[in-house]
Amino acid sequence: MTDAQLETAGTVDGVAQAKEKGKSYARVLSSLLIDLTHASSNLENVNISWLDTKTLIELGERPEGLTEQQLRIMLNHKEAITFLRDHGTHLQLGKRDLFDIQSLVIKGLLADDSGVGALRSVVVRFHDSRYILPDNPHQLREIFEQFCDKANAITHECPVHTAVPRAVLLLGHQRP
């Protein structure tokens, strides 16, 4: 072997490029976490800028003007999205996994935690919305089962890690 060959023996071509792509991928995931946390929190009427969301997520600094409940919503959404990112390829879109995700989203927000991990048994109304949630327990169960069936059909069309966040966002509108 020549000196040049010995110099490169045991090395793998493209490591630098792979590391650079890894950094780019990490940046994309970080930005996605911020975007999804910001969007999902805004759906919950947490009025926060994208930049304040970024500061909260990356630096852990609480933006001015957030109530304790709004902060909890933001942090719960971040935790749920991080969970989906880290475990999405191993999740099924069945009742158990969806209830586990639900428990991350509503952790610390309910006066009574007995409803965590189950379909709701109380009527939910939004005073500032025209949207009326289903309130019949039988209808809720039926909608949830249909949702699980449809969500699992999505996973056959695209990878679970993209289907799960999409499904969870859709599920949020039914507030089971």
UniProtKB/TrEMBL annotation:
UniProt cross-references to Gene3D superfamilies, sorted A to Z: Fido-like domain
InterPro entries: Fido-like_dom_sf (IPR036597)
Name of the protein in question: Uncharacterized protein
Natural source organism: Parapusillimonas granuli
